[in-house]
Amino acid sequence: MNIYTRTGDGGMTSVIGGRVAKDDRQVEAYGTIDELNCFVGQAISLLDGERFHDLREHLTEIQNELFDCGSDLAFARPEGKEFKVRADMVTRLEEWIDRYDAENPDITRFILPGGTGAASVLHVCRTVCRRAERRVVTLAAGQPINEEVRKYLNRLSDLFFVVARTANARTGVADIEYIRSAEVFRKKS
């Protein structure tokens, strides 16, 4: 099998059931999800040791689910299709958020992205995930989509925020508060 096909040389690409311009909203949406997946892989590579075994496992599962998100968005005509991203996947992300956040110290102010290398990349994941979500919102304004993908990305960006803090906490690195922030978060109860 050749990696190159030359079918995209004219600026068009294939989606499931058709062809679209390479800068189409649909390609922007699933292409941004693909970009996010690359950063997740980078984060995994920085989470070494037994203390991050669970997080590496969860992030690898997320990488597979990001492929599912892209697949669900790649239909030329999605009506009547069986989708891969489901509501129970969003619920599971919420469970992971609660689990990891329980490890994190309370915050009351905004924090600056950073800390360990892994935490920094997880913050990049958060922002790329938010961009992917915006691309999906734009796509949904013009055509039907699997709405669970949008919900999944929304919850996933929250997870990235939480696990970036967990990556710092597990290594004893404190979050750095934004010094001009008012108190915007409530303490955990």
UniProtKB/TrEMBL annotation:
Its EC number is 2.5.1.17. Residues 3-167 form the Cobalamin adenosyltransferase-like domain. Keywords: ATP-binding, Cobalamin biosynthesis, Nucleotide-binding, Transferase. The keyword Metal-binding does not apply. Coiled coil: none annotated. GO terms for biological process: cobalamin biosynthetic process. GO terms for molecular function: ATP binding; corrinoid adenosyltransferase activity. It catalyses: 2 cob(II)yrinate a,c diamide + reduced [electron-transfer flavoprotein] + 2 ATP = 2 adenosylcob(III)yrinate a,c-diamide + 2 triphosphate + oxidized [electron-transfer flavoprotein] + 3 H(+); 2 cob(II)alamin + reduced [electron-transfer flavoprotein] + 2 ATP = 2 adenosylcob(III)alamin + 2 triphosphate + oxidized [electron-transfer flavoprotein] + 3 H(+). The keyword Nucleus does not apply. Pfam families: Cob_adeno_trans. Pathway: Cofactor biosynthesis; adenosylcobalamin biosynthesis; adenosylcobalamin from cob(II)yrinate a,c-diamide: step 2/7. Signal peptide: none annotated. SUPFAM superfamilies: Cobalamin adenosyltransferase-like (SSF89028). Homotrimer. Belongs to the Cob(I)alamin adenosyltransferase family. This is Corrinoid adenosyltransferase. It comes from Paenibacillus swuensis. The lineage of its organism: Bacteria, Bacillati, Bacillota, Bacilli, Bacillales.
